[in-house]
Specification:
Blueprint: E1 3-16, E2 20-33, E3 37-41, H1 48-55, E4 63-68, E5 71-72, H2 77-80, E6 84-87, H3 99-110, H4 115-123, H5 139-151, E7 157-161, H6 169-184, E8 188-192, H7 196-202, E9 205-210, E10 213-219, H8 220-226, E11 232-236, H9 242-251, E12 255-258, E13 263-266, H10 272-279, E14 285-290, H11 295-313
Parallel strand pairs: 3-8, 3-9, 6-7, 7-8
Antiparallel strand pairs: 1-2, 1-4, 4-5, 9-10, 11-13, 11-14, 12-13
Helix pairs in contact: 3-4
Length: about 325
């Protein structure tokens, strides 16, 4: 797959009289491939927004290389503008304009056919409120209008920062379906979000940033597999057998935690070791399954470790 976004060794330092020097990006790397929904994850203050602003040519980096659609940024930013749609900061609207008027104005300014207005309003679920004034919209509806503005020119790359902000569960699901449909149509979506369960369900790949550094990346399946817990949940035919089973497994070097209705076992290389150790004591497995690790667990583990390491080194992030 070709790379739509390539970032290598990105550094950005902010200086102010009040706060002194702050290193926002510290050699950050990221690659986003064409046709994917790519999740961009990091805690508040990790450097996500700075990275997105550099990608859009709104902030100049101190060092490193940034390429979008094969073109260098910021040198090619004026040429790239028509190929990129973005929702990065809370947009502002003319409160007395309707959604239709707002998008029509942008169409005229960007030489986009006005027929596109009805298409995108239908796409984001605002067709039935198209002629209502924006000041009557809820936060979630304004967020949908912002996404409509970002996709109006049908960009090759769509950058969305927290697009589900203010949406109810039905709206979040609709937004998820929209982003999947856009990617399936050939658009590349770079999604920054704090809703990690949605990212795990929607995204093809992810990059995790902490304290301005790349701490994890890959396809969602690979990231989950790479950071699997290595622990197994074991249920027997009777909960009364759990203490005996725990002693049998511990005796052969396994680490065992006894819960009310199951065992959690680690320290094994093959799952067959569990069955064999129990069978020698006349115990038989009713259920054996890997302990599930979600993207949220991995995110917290990687970002906590990175932050702790930076603090030990005395680096301000």
């Amino acid at each position: 797959m070709s790379a739509v976004v390539e970032i290598r060794g990105l550094r950005k330092t902010f200086r102010s009289v009040r706060r002194g020097t702050r290193l926002a990006l510290d050699g950050f790397d990221m690659t986003v491939h064409a046709g994917q929904v790519h999740g961009f994850l990091g805690p508040n203050g990790s450097g996500k927004s700075t990275t997105l602003r550099v990608l859009l040519g709104l902030t100049r980096a101190g060092a490193g290389e940034v390429r979008v659609l094969g073109e260098p940024v910021p040198q090619a930013s004026p040429r790239l503008a028509r190929h990129i749609g973005a929702l990065v900061e809370s947009p502002r609207f003319f409160p007395h304009f309707s959604a239709w008027d707002t998008l029509a104005l942008l169409c005229d300014a960007g030489r986009v056919p006005r027929s596109r207005v009805d298409e995108v309003l239908e796409l984001v679920g605002l067709a039935d409120r198209a002629r209502d004034r924006v000041r009557t919209y809820s936060l979630g509806m304004r967020q949908r209008l912002a996404v409509a503005m970002a996709v109006l020119k049908h960009p090759d790359l769509l950058i969305l920062d927290e697009p589900a902000n203010g949406l109810d569960p039905a709206g979040i699901r609709q937004m998820r379906d929209l982003m999947r449909a856009l990617a399936d149509s050939g658009m590349t979506v770079l999604l920054a979000s704090h809703i990690l369960a949605e990212v795990q369900q929607l995204c093809d790949s992810v990059t995790i940033i902490s304290s301005g550094r790349h701490v994890g990346a890959g396809s969602v399946a690979d990231v989950l597999s790479r950071h699997a817990s290595g622990r197994w949940r074991v249920r027997l035919e009777s909960a009364d057998e759990l203490p005996t089973a725990a002693r049998a497994l511990t005796a052969v070097g396994m680490r065992v935690t006894v819960l009310a209705d199951q065992l959690v076992v680690s320290g094994i290389t093959r799952t067959g070791e569990i069955s064999r150790a129990l069978a020698t004591h006349g115990l038989y497995v009713a259920e054996l399954s890997p302990e599930a690790v979600g993207l949220e667990d991995i995110f917290l583990r990687l970002t906590d470790a990175s932050t702790a390491g930076r603090h030990r080194l005395g680096v301000m992030a």
